[in-house]
Fold this sequence. Notes:
alpha/beta; Alpha-Beta Plaits; 20% strand; globular
Amino acid sequence: xxxxxxxxxxxxxxxxxxxxxxxxxxxxxxxxxxxxxxxxxxxxxxxxxxxxxxxxxxxxxxxxxxxxxxxxxxxxxxxxxxxxxxxxxxxxxxxxxxxxxxxxxxxxxxxxxxxxxxxxxxxxxxxxxxxxxxxxxxxxxxxxxxxxxxxxxxxxxxxxxxxxxxxxxxxxxxxxxxxxxxxxxxxxxxxxxxxxxxxxxxxxxxxxxxxxxxxxxxxxxxxxxxxxxxxxxxxxxxxxxxxxxxxxxxxxxxxxxxxxxxxxxxxxxxxxxxxxxxxxxxxxxxxxxxxxxxxxxxxxxxxxxxxxxxxxxxxxxxxxxxxxxxxxxxxxxxxxxxxxxxxxxxxxxxxxxxxxxxxxxxxxxxxxxxxxxxxxxxxxxxxxxxxxxxxxxxxxxxxxxxxxxxxxxxxxxxxxxxxxxxxxxxxxxxxxxxxxxxxxxxxxxxxxxxxxxxxxxxxxxxxxx
Length: 465
């Protein structure tokens, strides 16, 4: 690779970084939540304007969609193609008083960080890629490889339209996202300055349990004679898991892929701070006493089942001695490849029926499948070499991102497409929380990383698929 030209592009980023940050601030000032269509529209228009300035041919799919998907492409000097996935919607900002400056969309710079709802998830992840293309255009005049972008507006609300596209028009959708490899929405750089490459996306199965044992609440003196919904729900939930933390539902683990030797090496090398997590969250020991590689395998390779919330009776006003007639709970299972959320739901429903809890209703709220890219994929070498031009610390291989996402939609139509994640977030970016942020240094390095990646892959002899 022409290292002199690469340094010129890096210098361009340094010289124009203030303008790049200003653009990031501007796009973060649009409140693009699902219940704010005007903010989503403003975000789309800003992105399409930037794409046009960079020579990216942009389209909205469909033109009258609500909200539509943005798709763009730009030709490069080689026949190789990298595909980028991002999203332009954000989660609600929550109570503004919880933000240090009380203004979630102000995009304030403080302590060498930019604070704004959506800056980490996912506008920073998208714009670092656009600013890389800006530098490539300015110095090289052209792109070393073909690039495609698919940026949706429903990632935070189940990606319904993208899923519909993939199922109703699979050939067309396959053409939209076809390429040699896909770079997913984001990643992080840890507190030691090590960039992460993520090789998967978790799935999930979100369930709402409910039970009704009478028509109205009654006085607590009837507690020995009238069935209470709270106890009924507690017993049903308790039947799902054993004291060893294993889920007791038959078939729950059947589809879990075995851990390979390459996986175990990646887990062994992964720098998981066991004691740091204990301190930051405030607990004394991990479940079942797991530690070391066994703990990391449980964290990354095993599915979960968690009770996220319980509701019964009324504790929000003056306490009353009652037998509640209704109770509900939210249960989330985080899945690993190749589990199917539909199968998980039906397995739980059958199990509860078999255990005598047919009166407990289970609503299947949403679900996504997990995907994995083999950690030995040849594209890993390209990403590691590119990172070495920017970071002075080695790349960290992360088996999968911990959160769920719609990568399974892409994998369903392009089963051989390597999907990997990288980006500018940090461990305290507080994604989905208050004071969401990116470090300016991490953002600048992410721009340079994409530049090096595109240049290196354009000249590499490595065949990915």
